[in-house]
Amino acid sequence: MTCDSVRRKLEPYIDSELTAGELAEFEAHLRGCASCAAEALGLLQGKRMTRAAGARYSPTPEFRLRMEQSIRVKPRLPWWTARFPKLVTAFVMALLLLVSVTLWVGHAEREQGFAELTDLHVATLASLNPIDVVSTDRHTVKPWFAGRIPFSFDLPELQNSEFTLVGGRVAYFEHSSGAQLLFNLRKHQLSVFIFKEQFGEIPFRGGLSTATELAFHIETWSEGGLRYCIVSDAPASDVHALSKLLRSATHP
Amino acid sequence: VPFREVILLCDVEEMGYQEIADTLTIPIGTVMSRLSRARRAMRDLLHDANIQSASRGTPS
Questions:
Q1: A196: left (phi over 0), alpha (psi -120 to 50) or beta
Q2: Which of A8, A9, A11 has the highest number of chain B CBs within 10 A, making it the mutation to test binding with B?
Q3: Helix (H), strand (E) at residue B21
Q4: Is A60 in a helix, a strand, or coil?
Q5: Separation between Cα atoms, residue A193 and residue A190, nearest integer Å
Q6: What is the reported pLDDT for B60?
Q7: φ, ψ (nearest 5 deg) of residue A170
Q8: In sequence order, which ranges of chain A are alpha helices (DSSP H)?
């Protein structure tokens, strides 16, 4: 052990914090080195003196009680909150800003998605040939899509419901092709859009949700990796009835 | 205060480094460095006080 390394460990030595191995080596050095031994002795005397001085003064019971109460009431905050209060405030503000921007962007994308689907629905109704496959039979419409879109879907039995299937066409939304089915309810027409749920492309998330866009009622949900979206001028309750019917087809 | 508390806990209350670190919720390395600086500061203070009392004691 060199004098340098001994000097670094002088304090752990006088505080009895050295391991048994270190202690043996340390004391062997002290026996042979007068200057290190003198240094250690000086420190040890300082420590003893402090202890004696500390023992000489004892706090009054009132003071002790006051200290204990102040310790109990005051919660100990992490050191960095005391040292950098501005940093903590800035961090919290930045976090809040990030969360609100993320929520706002998500909301804006969702609104834009609904607007685009509403446009698609209106454009289909305005078109001279609104549908590519004209059939009220689900066993005709569903196979027609095979090979035209990159997925398949289930259609419910409509015989006992007010809805009638008019037909379907291929629709394009956010760079992907999907199915657009047209249903009739009394004089209303309802578009059902079905797309593959792709992260970052279809701007809708999560389960069943509804919206209103230019007085069109919209209901969207996700099922088995597919994103369904109904757009119609029919009352919201009818839109919901069709959504229930379609969901029952995938979960009979 | 940070110096006083480590000196008090270590020398008067005779607590170990780890115990002090747990009590003050600071790393053990901080306990050691504070203790070392506190003792040096105390030594310097006592040294200065000694010089002053010695100079007052000697006739000019």
A1: beta
A2: A11
A3: helix B17-24
A4: coil
A5: 10
A6: 44
A7: -85, 130
A8: 3-8, 10-14, 20-32, 34-56, 61-73, 79-83, 85-126, 138-144, 236-250
Which stretch of A84-88, A170-174, B15-19 has the lowest confidence by average pLDDT? A84-88
- Contact across the interface for B26 and A79, Cβ inside 8 Å: yes
DSSP B9: I
User: What pLDDT is attached to residue B27?
Assistant: 93
Contact B17 A12 (CB under 8 A): yes
User: Taking CB atoms and an 8 Å limit, are B16 and A17 in contact across chains?
Assistant: yes
- CB atoms B14 and A51 under 8 Å: yes
Provide the pLDDT confidence category of residue A140 given band limits of 50, 70 and 90. Answer: confident
Q: Averaged over B21-43, what is the pLDDT?
A: 91
pLDDT value at A234 more than 60: yes
Out of B12, B35, B36, name the one closest to residue A54 (CB).
Answer: B12
- DSSP for A13-51, please give it: HHTT-S-HHHHHHHHHHHHH-HHHHHHHHHHHHHHHHHH
Q: Could you tell me which residues come within 8 angstroms of residue A182 by beta carbon, excluding any fewer than 6 positions away?
A: A124, A130, A131, A165, A166, A167, A168, A169, A189, A190, A191, A192
pLDDT at B29 (0 to 100): 93
CB atoms within 10 A of CB A135: 15
- A 10 A CB-CB count for A232 gives 23
Question: What pLDDT sits at residue A215?
Answer: 79
Q: What average pLDDT does this structure show over A180-197?
A: 86
Evaluate whether A223 touches A250 at the Cβ level (below 8 Å): yes
pLDDT of A50 higher than 60: yes
Beta carbons of A40 and A9 less than 8 angstroms apart: no
Q: How far is B11 from chain A (nearest CA, A)?
A: 5
Q: Which residues of B touch A8 (CB under 8 A)?
A: none
